[in-house]
Each structure stands twice: as structure tokens, then as C-alpha cells.
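Review box. Two proteins, two foldings.
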Amino acid sequence: MSELEAAAEPGPADGSPFPPVDRAESGQKLLQFLQRRLNLPPALLHRWVRTGQVRLNGRRAKPFARVNEGDLVRLPPFAGTLAAQAGAPGLGARQSPAPDTQPLPPLVARLGDILAFHKPAGLPTHPGTGHADSLSSRLRAHAAGAPFVPTPAHRLDRDTSGILLVAATHEGLRELQQAFRERRVAKEYVAWVDGAWPHAAPRLLRSQLRKEGAPGAERVRACADSEAAAAGAREALSIVRPLGIGPDASLVQIRLLTGRTHQIRVQLAELGHPVLGDAKYGWGRRENCPALCLHALRVTLPDGRSVECLPDWTGPYALAALPAPMPAEAAESTPGQASAPFSSNSAAGQPSGAPH
């Protein structure tokens, strides 16, 4: 028995089972389920399971056995007290958010077990160095004590606004993350870029991108195909079509075919048309310009359902209507080319105006 266990006095919930496994948490591995519920070190929980102190439906179980809806999990003595000391919100008891809890972003749609939020620019997806506030931490605060805390299935850069999908169940999270890994989820963006975009037709952008720098200060760079393998670069593909072209700034729509870090920002900057407001890869902020004019416009699920929202940009940068969805078909670019054209008959939506 550890010092932590020895110091804990059995509480009223110790030795009793959790409430039956909820549908929202069904499908988790037993160890993962215990971590989410108790907020205790995995090594401690693994030992409890291995030594038979945790029972699944009255029997011993392995740490990686899956729990299903309706299953009963019994805890060892003092588990509830340890969980309370570790800051766990309770054994299945839903709690009201604290009065100072930050509000959740606008909910655009709910598609079964999937929540689509309009993440504002400036709000990180996850907490990190120098910022505790994030979408995931707000979800955790609003769902304190819930059987399963809704969890972002992907991420957007801190200063990128737009559609972000959150799974309300473990099974939904697993399926959605798998769909993202297999590139079965279509993601479209809109961006204002510097200068007059030179292509009237949609273009396929192809780059080899590599990360440089320490975690938290990473920068992504493009490299030549001949250097890609040695540099640990990965191929980045996206389709770009213009929605409005002006002499000083252009509005473009982007469909990602891969999901590399900072992909859109780097690819557009490499072509000499960085995203407006991008101080890292471009020229920084302009007058009356949002901090970063990049917005996740639309996400389409493998079954064809889509969620979409316009950015909150105002003045000459505002969009009056949603652009039409972009097709997935594109001509392959030849080696060494930055971009190649492809044909499309889809009509693009129009911006309210092009800044000059």
C-alpha cells in the first residue's frame, strides 16, 4: 500500500461501484475509464486492476478490457477519498459550473454525438504554456462530474476562428478521430491574403513541410523535394480557389487534402501571398483587419453531413454569403511545381467587397 493510500480514510463512496457505465463513456478501456473518473496516476490504477481491487461486473478484469453501457465497476477502499484529494469532481455526480466559468463558444449544430462550435480567434483548442483558458478547459468546467467530458476531436490554431468538432461520447470521439486520420473528413477555410491572387482557376498546392524549433516555439518551413526525406518533411496538399481578387488583397477558399501544422499559412506565404494578419509567416496586422484573416468555414463528415459558419469579420473583410462547397477532385501537380490547375464547375460565393 502506498503512502497516499495509507493516509486516506475510507469515505462513504469507497468500496461502492460507480453508477453504471453511461452510454457516453461506453467503449473506453477500463484503465482509461478509471483515469477519467478518478483523476489518479495510471500506475496506481493499473496496480489496483492487476491485483483485483477493481472489479468489472463482479469479476477481475484486465486494464485494457473495454467497458460497455450498463457495466458496474467496483472500487477498492479509500478510492473515493483519494479521488477527491486529486480533484476529481465526484463519482458520477454532475456539478454546476463555477460562477466565474468562461462561457462556451456559440454552438453551431449538434449532429448526434458530435457538437460543432464556432471557436473564436484567440481561444486555444487546448491549454498550454502561458494560457490556461481553452475550449477543452471550458468544456471540462461546464461538464464537471459528467460521465464523459465532451472532447475536441481535432484542433484549430489559437488565432484561427471557425468550425471545431467536439465529441460528446467516447465512441463518437474514437470514430471521429479515426475519420480525421483517414482523411475522410473534408475541411474548408476562407482567408484574406496579401496582394492580387494570380490564378483565376482553382489550384492544387503541393509542398514538403518540416517543423523547426522547440515545442511551443515551432516554425514550419517548406523545403525542396530532394531535401524532404533528409529533413523529415511531410507532403502537404491543398486546393485554393479565388472568391474575390483585388490589387492589394484577395479572398480565397481552401480545401485541405492533408492536415499539417500551419499548412495553409505556410503554403500561401511561400507563394508570396501570406494570410493577412499573420505576424509569424507574413506581414502582420493591417488597419481594420482581424488579427488573422483565416477561418474554418465548413466541415463535411464522411456521411455527407456538413456544418458551416461565416467568420465574424467586419467592414471590407466581411463575407456576405457562404461560398459553395469545393470539389475533392484535382489534377496531380508534377514534381517541382508549387501548384497545378484543376477544373471545377462549382460557383463560388462572393465577398461583400475586396479591400484596396
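Next protein.
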Amino acid sequence: MFLSDQYQALDFGENRRLERFGKLVLDRPCPAAEFLKKKTPSRWTTADAVFQIDEIASKQSNAQAERGVWVAKTNLGRSFFTNSVEKNDINSAAWQIRHDQAVFELRGTPFGHVGVFPEQADNWDAIKSFCLRQTQLHQAVTFRVLNVFAYTGGSTLAAAQGGAEVVHVDAAKNIVAWARKNAELSQIAPSQVRWIAEDAQKFVRRELKRGNRYQGVVLDPPSYGHGARGEVWRLSKHLPNLLLDCFSLLESDVPCFLLLTCHTPGFPLNRLTHLIEETANVAWGDKLTRKRIRFDARTMTLHAESGATLPSGESVMVCYNDG
């Protein structure tokens, strides 16, 4: 959980979200809030910057997300957002927030993101707790975690701060560089994280061929995407095989975990949980003992100061041999 002076959801509604990241109050698009009404309309006038969608640029872009520009509304906003932008540029300076011991460098992107997904905070706490427990109980054994579709590294930082060695994989080189900066700001030892700009599916398959194994796997796949060399990713088509490969990477004779988060329509919590249960049975077969497996399945939800709630994707964490 974030401390309220670092991040706070303020209100949701009418296809938008109002949040405070550090000192900055931002108003940005949120399709999940399409059918919600704003509970505190007057609060929205306090936004320091508003993300405005550029319909023409969005249609011309190959990316799935809508493009746009951040428009400063206050003096504080103008100190971070320039209100002048060239095509594909970020018209934002950087600022920082903290979660636990992790430091995140934020900036407004041309897609309305800022570099952190606050709904993941409880997952980061769970990852760190699991890794700490195992690294303290088995100090002679290296606890290794693979984080694919790793974005700016929230799960990577949590695992590393739990004492694990982490392999961080994302297809975008600039995003890997961003995550690496977060690790430096968080004072993560360089030897703790291996940084890989690669297609997730290809990397996982190569790890299987190499015989490498992990005690934790984290994946937060998009609905659609492209790998480092243009490989096409479709969650509805590719997730089952990737999940099977990820379970096969886990060293199931020792305590291990897999965490899957998903924001794709058509993949509700019960479907994801069933898919993970089936995949674990196929991957581990006779090794699987029901008494040793634990599922934590939940809808990630943001609770705003206004009283509004926003479902923000699904999360399933399966732990095996954990006590």
C-alpha cells in the first residue's frame, strides 16, 4: 500500500481518473470509469495537469493506446509540463514517489501513463514478503525471480528488496532503461538484477532449453503487444502456452510462486484461476499436492478519497510448498 503523501486516488468517473502522485494532481483517461459518475466534480478543477487525447495522432499510431498531450493547468503543473511537444516526445519533466523502500521516477508519457500502476502495490508487498521469508529461511540458496512484461520494475524492486536475484524482461529498451533507473534510485545492487530487452515468449523458451529454473515468476501481459523484433502478442491466443512454459520454469520441489495479473476484457477472475489450476496440473503432474498449494485470487481495486471504487484488473498468485 502507498502512503497517502506518495499516491492517492481522489475520484473516478466519466471515463477519467483523478489522482495525486506526490504533489501533482493529474486528470487522465480511464476507460474502466466510463459508467461511473464523478462524486466530487469540484475537486477536478484542482488538477495540475490534464491529459488530452489527440484523435488524429491516435488514429495514425500503430500503438493500441490512444496518444495525446499533457496540458498544465496550474503553476505547479507548468513546472513539470511544458505545454509544447513535438511528435513522439514526452512534454514532461521527471518527479519521484516512493512505495515502501522502492523509488519510482515518474513522468507523463504520450499515452497518458506516468510510469507506475498503483493497483499493483498489494502485489509488490506479497512478492517482497514471499521472497524475504524464503531468503531468510534458506540463506544458502539463491532465490531467483523472473519478471516478464516487467514495465518500470515495481515487481522487480519488490523481489530484489526481498533478497531475490531477478531477471527483468520487457520488449521495449526505453522501458527497461526506465526500470533500471528506478532500481538505481532504490539502491538495488547492480548484481541483483539482470536487465533484458526481449520478447517474453522467446526468452522463456530459451530459459527452458538452457535448463534454468526459478523460484518465482511474475507476468503482467498486455491484451496486445509487440516484441523487441516485432513479434506479435495476443493474450487470448498466446497466454495459455506462455503460462505452461512459466510453470515449467518453476522449481516446484522448493517453495515457489507464480503471479499473473491481467487487464483484458473477457478474462474474469474465475477464468484466470481455472486456467492457472489447469496449467499447474499439466506442468507439474504427480508433483502437485493440493495440501501444498495456495491461491490468492482477487480483483485489484482502487479506493478513492471521494468514496468511488475502481476495479483495475485481476490478480492470481499461486504459492507452492510455502510452509
